[in-house]
Amino acid sequence: MDMYLDGSVNPMILLADEYQDEVRRTYHSDLPHSMRLAAFGLGVAGEAGEVADLIKKHVGHGHGLDRDKVIKELGDVLWYVTALAEMCSVSLSQVMLENARKLRVRYPNGFTQQDSINRKDV
User: Fold this and answer.
1) Phi/psi at 111 (nearest 5 deg)?
2) Distance between CA atoms of 80 and 67, rounded to whole angstroms?
3) Is pLDDT above 80 for 2?
4) Which residues are 110's β-sheet partners?
5) Under 8 Å CB-to-CB from 39, ≥6 apart: which residues?
6) Residue pair 84/37 in contact by the 8 Å Cβ criterion
7) Domain ranges of the chain
């Protein structure tokens, strides 16, 4: 059972792992492993580019920031990240927990510019 950083049980892990089940259900499993890995890796880059384009248009072109479009594009990024985790036999909850642990070491008291400059690689 996955836990919070303090060791208590994390009920959100179930949601992350259920989401991973849904991603697994909806990806093209007939492709060879290497092709799925490439497609999902490129998918992350492509979808992240779509998020970046929305931000660029908002900041640089004066467009309104369309929250619904941002949610949809971030969802696509999450789908591809989750699919990559699946391809590496890693649960999304494990990715989330390890990232949170890394950030706790890197920024023990929350983000500071000084900690960022003197960043601890974990």
Assistant:
1) -65, 135
2) 20
3) no
4) 108
5) 28, 31
6) yes
7) 32-88, 91-122
